[in-house]
Records
---
Amino acid sequence: MSTDGFTTCLWFDGDAEDAARFYVSVFENSAVGSVTRYPEGSYQPAGTVLTVEFTANGQKFVGLNGGPQFRFSEAISFQIPCRDQEEVDHYWSRLTEGGGEEGPCGWLKDRFGVSWQVIPRRLEEMFRDPDPAKVARANKAMMSMRKLDIAALERAYAGE
């Protein structure tokens, strides 16, 4: 079995290279790698991008321009654990820019249709609290939000 970890393949309809360049601009520890192109006789015009390898936040990806047959859905999403509100705000604004869509409870879709969960680490800590009343208050507050507001979550968690 390979010890190199996994590579996530994301299926796009012609904008894999644009998506790769966008993700590399959003996350640190990122780079675009090799790009392959469709050869003569393919169902796409020769020379158009077939695949683009990239790393985003240290994770390996391949963007595949496979056509319109498949679309992204919320059934698969990427979680971004954030240390503070500044990180939440950064990822939220960058990933929704250019046509992304805000969703409930810290979820969003970027302009390519990929789903993301922008989650403060503090919320994960709240949800592990042994006091069910605190957890319920934090959960209720989260359910009313789009982009998560750590200060508002803290107030709800504390019962304020």
Note: The helical segments are 16-26, 85-96, 121-127, 132-143, 150-158.
---
Amino acid sequence: MAARNLSTRLALETSDRIADGLGGYETRWRQLGWLWAQMEARSGREQGTGAGMISVVQWRITLRAAPVGDARRPRPGQRLRQGTRLFQIEAVAESDPSGRYLDCFAREEDLT
């Protein structure tokens, strides 16, 4: 198997629920660390929302593997950040039979 080109630096972030003092909560994102990745756009579409149209792109983001339960292993519900671009992680799976890489299937949304 050919080596992957992990040349894109991404921040791994997780959400924290913070009480707002009025019985509700707000979501804040906290950076967990940096990961090197290979990114491949899979599909894209334009989607209408109540606020207008947004561009939605599905990505396969390949990273070095980490064991289940390890803080370095991304989980659905977390996100990856590249500057102002955000990639919401929807699923994570082993990428190869040897378990050296993980694929994160993520969604990027952008207002158009």
Note: The two ends are 39 Å apart (CA to CA).
